[in-house]
Amino acid sequence: MTNNQNTHSDHHSARIDRREFVNRCVKAGVSVAAVGGAAYYLYDAEGPAAHPAEKSEITLPDFSVPHKAGDTMSIVSSDNRREGIDKAISLLGGMERFIEPNDRVVIKPNVAFSSPPALGATSHPEAVGKLVELSLKAGAASVVVTDNPINDPASCFDISGIREATEKAGGKVILPADDLFRNTTVENGQLIKNWPVLYGALKTADKLIGLAPVKHHTRSGASMTMKNWYGLLGGRRNIFHQQMNRIIYELTLLSKPTLVVLDGVTTMISNGPTGGSTSDLKETNKIVASCDTVAADSFGATLLGLKQEDLPYIGMAQEADIGTADYQSLKPQTGGTKKG
Predict the structure, then answer these.
(1) Least confident stretch, 55-59, 161-165, 293-297, 312-316
(2) Residues 105, 244, 21, CA angle at the centre, nearest 5°?
(3) How far is CA 119 from the centre of its chain?
(4) DSSP for residue 56
(5) Confidence label for 47 from pLDDT (cuts 50, 70 and 90)
(6) How many angstroms separate the CA atoms of 131 and 288, rounded?
(7) How far apart are the C-alpha atoms of 122 and 19, rounded to whole Å?
């Protein structure tokens, strides 16, 4: 057996072991959240590497759309994700502003953990399903939902409810596989240099939408739309844990999305990013849609009781002219939906 075959076999076995680990814990009555928390530290040591047959580096496309004065960001008060997302995007001109007929759309939620929706560690399936529906209604030819989770990918998409919500809405889930990763280098990057990213799911896409919950994070202070792009990385990405601000900043250089949606209907205010109890959550009832990921996270920080200075990567991104930390300068559109 060749070294490549051995590596593939070992990687496949590791994935099977993770799945069995989760299933056995669930059968034994251990909380799924506890499984997710343990796996966060134990199982993110080595993800897929770049496909060996593909030697040349790639650059991710620029998926952004032109900003419109006064229509760059919206903030909606709502306790209903589907209605809140519908309202937030309609305030920016509707999904038709972002998705053109026959576009191939990729949605990147946070599916990092094998955790049920009620614990807030992942994007909510209702939010994913709504974005798939809106994209198809706007004329998208296809909608793919993808992520490279920390826990076993199949378990994460199943337990979070995101696979079911995606397929029910007419989309398709793509799980990470070795042949989907290609190496890339961020211009002026210190960390993302010849590093594998989930290019295979994006290479034929026309538009990219990021969807993230608002969460406390023990290392970075917060996990929102900018941190969400961490799920595009393969390789031994846990080596970046000691340089979280730098890696989040470089992820914003790597990814140029069409739109980001920040789900603050429920905010994880403690013990993030995995949580583990509903006592870690607070109902904050906000949905943000934005062409400016830095502004979205700047507002999201307020839901966690944080300021810009508490999250250095926001200032780093602003200094690089990726976006603005002064979200109020964008004069965000505001609205609300009826409680129910």
Answers:
(1) 55-59
(2) 70
(3) 16
(4) S
(5) low
(6) 13
(7) 18
